[in-house]
Amino acid sequence: MIRQDFNQGWTYKKAGEAESIAVTLPHDAQITEKRESDGAGGGGHGYFPGGVYEYEKDFFVPEEWKDKEIAILFEGIYRNTKIYVNGTEAGSHKYGYTPFIITLNACLAYGQDNYIKVVADNSKLPNSRWYTGGGIYRPVHLLMGNRTHIPWQGVKITTLSYQTAKILVETKTAGMKNPAEENILVEIMRDGNVLVTGRGAHAEIEVPNGKLWDDETPYLYECRVTLSDEAGEQDQVTETFGIRQVEWSNKGLFINGKETLLRGGCVHHDNGILGAACYEKSEERRVRIMKEVGFNAIRSSHNPASEAMLRACDKYGMYIMDETFDMWYNRKNPYDYGGDFEECWEEDTRAMVERDYNHPSVIMYSIGNEVAEPYEQKGIDVGRKQIDLIHSMDTSRAVTCGVNLMIIGQAAKGKGIYQDGKSSAGSGDKEEKEGSNASLAFNIMASFVGTGMNKGGNSARVDALTTPFVDSLDIAGYNYGSGRYPMEGTKHPERIIFGSETFPQDICKNWEMVKKYPYLIGDFMWTSWDYLGEAGIGAWSYSGGMPFNRPYPWLLAGAGVIDILGVPDASCRYAATVWGKIDRPVIGVKPVNHPGVRPSKSVWRGTNAMESWSWRGCKGNKAEVEVYGDAAYAELLLNGRKIGRKKLKAYKAVFKTKYAPGVLKAVLYDENGRELSRQSLVSASGTSSIAAVPEETTVMAEDIAYVNVMMTGENGIVESNDDHRLTVEVENGELLAFGSANPCTREQYHTGCFTTYYGRALAIVRAGKSGTVKIRVSGEGLEEKTAEIDIQN
């Protein structure tokens, strides 16, 4: 079926409001709402309110469509959605993260305008442990085909062999019984050139001189399938794929026969200052940045990733573990998917696996995150049903789960950590009940137990309790279970494991074990990219308070080693150093602009150091400097004066000095005192001014573009201690969002006004149809700056 863009010409309003506004999808209805200290979702949702969101669109249906198959594909709507076409309910969907299609033929009026209404009900909070967004936040497509056609997702491509590049192309058809081989033409292409052809619904094809897909060489092909009958061509579908085979055993994970270690990070679905709105450019940018700083794997936490993210992972060579659910039949919050799980899990799991099948980046499916249900037989059975379903659909990938052994152990004692205290946990009861966000209980526990959680699954009792479920998985993911890594080879010699969720500060000792134990295939830190909601869970705060569930106006988790603007912190560089991806020293400086104040620290963040030596007005303040490197010794110099030389332990040395503007330099030495490499941080000099730097100088018409907005010195260096409230205006385009990475703010991203944070902010604009986009940035007492982006038609 032909897939057409259906994102234009919509209007939106919140139920009960009189006026609608014009919107282009994707659209997050929640991100523009006013946050309140008593917001129903609490800190988990970032203190945003919920609501019922209504979208409408008129579209003309030609008379000739009578003989066509017509459907609409929604990639994702949050949540409890109902679709109406010309006043008739055409379909519904409950889960907020899976794609679904609505067939329109029975509802359409041909030769005239038609009317579609989409109602998304996100009014009952809390229904998640993080910020979800609301409304039609992923793209929408119109599907059209002849009566004889290839259904949506009707072409599956499987790698049969990588030694000789051989694939199987399976094609489903509709409207044609038992198609002959000559009815289906399969063409394998690269850059529009046909390399080889095959025929039939089950075409085995050897690709000449086939190049393989992996994280280092993400080589992609196109598969074009044409369906014909005696009347001629009826349909044509093109799928992108890579020749890639995944194998696993207690000897390791192998991609095309090559042992592979996963340098992973967990990623929530929101796009920072855009909220939940999912744009192709945004997902691609996130994956590209993660790849550039050393990651080679993503865990989609804790729901199916967007299709745009999968395409980006295919393009850049990023492995992905796609995850189904954060909860099963026990709710973690009063109104979450746990009330729908038993009715909907099979449909939603199928939707994820069918969509993911042709994406070479997807190497594992996860059936859940920190679910407590496997403490009882019902939970074990439910897990096995999910595993069996996925195996029946796809045997080429492993099935895993983010298992928190301690949580299952606690649940068996009747001490459920994720438990809505007033709901009937385990009953599947759909009755609406009051309760609080269950992240709080877990975060309180984690904050006090700290990294001791890593040993929470070490006991013989917990091992015996969890073994029936864990051994039903192809590969076992352990959340905060690194204490078990060394013993698994003896206790469970056939088991394959990885760290599905770990503390970033543990990366050194975890990675040493990954390299040591063949059955331990990787590590996924929480988190690689910061996110909205779970307010303050990972933040270091200079204003006091407990390091979890911080009060309004806290907004961000503050847990990412890359902030919501896409800027890596020092701990991100530390991980890259441990992984062997950086061959120079890294200098991380803890903020020096809070003299005498001891920050409250989070267990999910080992340091708040950043790569900056620009702290205006802080001369003489105490400074703590972390130097990372793969060497024997590190030396630190300030303005040519030696601060000290120290032995690197676990790739790190810590120095204390006093801040003075100038040049901070780190030098690495080997055991014999021979210099290996050096790196410097330079202070901003002179008067600060606005800098607006687009990440692209040319974009396609109506595409989006990112513009980095900074306060810089006369030497172009970002000044970390001279923040200003700035205003952004756009000519020949639309400002989609403007904001900073400040985790605690009352400002909103859609207003066009925001204060920089450590000298940085970000503007995201949608280009017009032709000409030049102009982005003007101004602030009180500052010279206005203009950036331009050319539009390519």
Automatic annotation (TrEMBL):
InterPro entries named among the record's database cross-references: Beta-gal/glucu_dom_sf, DUF4982, Galactose-bd-like_sf, GH, GH2_Domain-Containing, Glyco_hydro2_dom5, Glyco_hydro_2, Glyco_hydro_2_cat
Residues covered by the Glycosyl hydrolases family 2 sugar binding domain: 54-143
Pfam family of the protein (one): Glyco_hydro_2
Domain called Glycoside hydrolase family: residue spans: 701-787
Single GO MF descriptor: hydrolase activity
Top-level taxon of the source organism: Bacteria
Residue stretches making up the Glycoside hydrolase family 2 catalytic domain: 248-404
Residue ranges constituting the Glycoside hydrolase family 2 immunoglobulin-like beta-sandwich domain according to the UniProt record: 162-244
Cleaved signal peptide residues: none
Domain DUF4982: 620-676
UniProt entry keywords in alphabetical sequence: Glycosidase, Hydrolase
UniProt similarity note: Belongs to the glycosyl hydrolase 2 family.
Entry protein name: Glycoside hydrolase family 2 TIM barrel-domain containing protein
Native source organism of the sequence: Blautia parvula
